[in-house]
Amino acid sequence: MKISNKTLYKLEIKSTKFLPIIIAILYIVNTILSYYRYDIEELAMIGGMSLLPLAKLYLSSFTYKLCMHHRVFIYYIFLHNLISSIDMYTEGVLINDRGLFLLHLVLFGIFIILYIICKRRYDFSRKYGSKIP
What we know:
The chain has five helices and no strands. By secondary structure, it is an all-alpha fold. The protein is globular. The N and C termini lie far apart (41 Å).
């Protein structure tokens, strides 16, 4: 089975676009389930991510000239990892479990709204040919 370079290029672009969205959804599902004491290790293994693959996704989004709304989820994943790391190293001294859960939900909501705004601006600029980034 021979795969052409064009197919690989399309696959790389699709994965760069949609992998951060899938990871962000897995993060929020894992956060919700963990709050209610349903720890699914497989979900954490599939959706868990370190900063190095995240940096690769970020650089790929610039390499393939993806729009801002595709990077919103990469920013969310980074911020989610940062907050979770701070909580892990302080062992819950700074904020309790309920506060951390609400912080993650609010953060996810803000980034969803930011994604919608960026997507609408992108669609508007494509439709009317303006130079809105």
